[in-house]
From TrEMBL:
Organism of origin: Enterococcus gallinarum
Entry EC no(s): 3.-.-.-, 3.1.3.5
Entries under PANTHER family matching the protein: N-ACYLNEURAMINATE-9-PHOSPHATASE
Lineage: Bacteria, Bacillati, Bacillota, Bacilli, Lactobacillales
InterPro entries (UniProt xref): HAD-like_hydrolase, HAD-like_sf, HAD-SF_hydro_IA, HAD_2, HAD_sf
Name of the molecule in the record: HAD superfamily hydrolase
Originating gene: yjjG_1
Amino acid sequence: MLNDQAVFFDIDDTLLDNFCAFKETIQEFFPGSLNELALKQLYRNFRQNSEKIYQNYLEGNRKHKTDRWRLVLQTLQQTSSVNTSELDDYYHLRQGKQLLSKEMQLLLRSLKKSGILCGVLTNGFALQQQNKIDQLMLNQLIDPNWQFISEEIGDAKPNVSCFRKVAKQLPKQIQRIYYLGDSYSNDIIPAQMAGWRPIWLNRFGDKGESAIIQAKNAEEAVVLLLSQLLSNRA
């Protein structure tokens, strides 16, 4: 049976390609400054700082979101050449142009057609994350009842309780929950600890436990996820 399985997705860097928006921002303001490998390393640091800022916010330390750009400018040795707000505004402009990849569109359509429950579990502010959901037109593919945003549920990744809180709201027949995410610490480890079955979309070659199922890109992630679903079909 397939209807006893559910598949949940992270948004940022999983369904939404934030690296592309970051790359376009750097190329717009600092053309030719970095090659692809250096851009990816810089983005990894940017992403980690973004996660820290959000975690600090949850803990009551209200750092401004543009702080993550100060470290980028320091790395590029461009600390006085551009305003961090300009960078952040342009980044969000480019982020708002990103679409759901063809691979993920096909995957979600196939899962919906097969009657497999699909959902979203994402960290972030409700309005901001809902805008991303709308941008990717996920309501056409994922029932809004199964779209969970951390601010709305009062819990956030990497808390294991966040995953358990979502699992308790699912239909009783759901026996296995797969989770596709990009962050080893925020997505993969807590999902596994909550009894979910994580698949790591490790686009940037980050280090983690080798036993974790992982994919280098969206195409690999689709193949791995479908093979897992079919192998557990009763």
